[in-house]
Amino acid sequence: MIPTFFGITIVTFALINMAPGGPIEQKLQAIRFGSGGGGGGSTGSSVGNRGDSAVNEEVIEALKKQYGFDKPLHVRYLIWLKNLSRLDFGESFTYQEPVTDVIISKFPVSLTFGLTSLFLTYLICIPLGVSKATKAGGIYDRLTTFGLNLTYSIPPLILGIFLIVVVAGKWNLAPLGGFQSDDYESLSTWARFTDRLHHMILPLLCYMIGGFTELSTLMRNSMLDVIKSDYVRTARAKGLSERKVIFKHALRNALIPIATGLGGFFGVFLAGSLIIEQIFNLDGIGLLGYQSIMSRDYNVIMGLTFMSSMVLMLGRIFSDVIYVMVDPRIDFK
Questions:
Q1: Helix (H) or strand (E) holding 189
Q2: For residue 221, is pLDDT > 80?
Q3: Between vectors from CA 323 to CA 320 and to CA 327, what angle results, nearest 5°?
Q4: pLDDT score of 41
Q5: Between the CA of residue 152 and those of 100, 117, 149, 305, what are the distances in Å?
Q6: pLDDT computed for residue 267 by the predictor
Q7: What are the DSSP calls for 65-132, one per residue?
Q8: Proportion of the chain in helix, strand, coil states, percent, rounded to 5
Q9: For site-directed labelling of 255, which of 37, 66, 311, 319 has its Cα 20 to 30 A away?
Q10: Three-state SS for 333?
């Protein structure tokens, strides 16, 4: 884990610092635009340009010191690691707030959609995959396979635009966007719940549509392999009901490949989709990451990189633990 963490952070830190258009360049551009509105003759302009270049040198040095760019790249990275030991990611150049506060402020949207989509995906796809496996080759299996492949072929961008234009705009069945209504704070507890649910329906469809096909197909194929096993045939030969054979003997082993994806449980804390958040006007982690990259907000980028890498690595460990719980034959000793 430690080499992986250092590899991710070093590469990210180097790339964002070598990219053009950093905060100093953006600040200087804003200063030039702010002072470029005055008029004057050609002689005055010439003198002004010489004065600007002299001032700019002083301004550049001051900005470098302010943003910490007066030190070499490797020294800045070591300073970042030192501050990281105190969980201090610095201050956002854009929001002028601590990076931790900026990221935490985006959690409600991403966490809500991440947890809900993860729960609903597994809740629907596991039973669907089991039923498809038990009826493999039949009409039900073919129809559901066709439907899943159809939904998988629809890009979330196109689906989001369709839902906004038709379902929300033309039919007025859902809000056009946002995470809650304007009068959310004045609503009762139940009304708040229904209001959030009303706003979540369309974005959730876009979040989940791609994962349905992958997880359902994986569950179906895994269950088919297990059903063909000798111990399943033996259980049937003993006269056990088909329901008991499937859910007591076959399901647990069929869940082993599915357990890999459960590591994504940790990823829901930083879940975010730039396209979906842009379409539905959701202020989440995905949009924050995109805006930070475009504005070269290095501290926010590194904060998101650190959290994402730690979450993904913890997810891998969690997947290994789930493997052991599902299949006692697996031992990492």
A1: helix 189-227
A2: yes
A3: 150
A4: 43
A5: 36, 16, 5, 29
A6: 64
A7: HHHTTTS-HHHHHHHHHHHHTTT---B-TTT-SBHHHHHHHHHHHHHHHHHHHHHHHHHHHHHHHHHH
A8: 75, 0, 25
A9: 311
A10: coil
Query: What are 28-55's pLDDT values in tens digits?
Result: 777 777 665 444 444 344 334 444 444 4
pLDDT digits 0-9 by tens, 264-313: 656 655 656 778 888 898 888 888 988 898 888 999 999 999 988 888 88
Contacts with 138 (C-beta within 8 Å, 6 or more apart), sequence order: none
Q: Where in the chain is the domain with CATH 1.10.3720.10?
A: 105-326
Residues contacting residue 200 through CB under 8 Å, at least 6 positions apart: 112, 113, 116
DSSP annotation string for 257-277 = TGGGGGGGGGGGGG---HHHH
pLDDT over 70 at 60, yes or no: yes
> What pLDDT is stored for residue 36 in this prediction?
54
The CATH class given to the 105-326 domain equals mainly alpha
This prediction's pTM: 0.78
The dihedral sign for the CA sequence 176, 182, 184, 187: negative
Question: What is the distance between the alpha carbons of residues 204 and 179, in angstroms, rounded to a whole number?
Answer: 12
Mean pLDDT of 100-107: 90
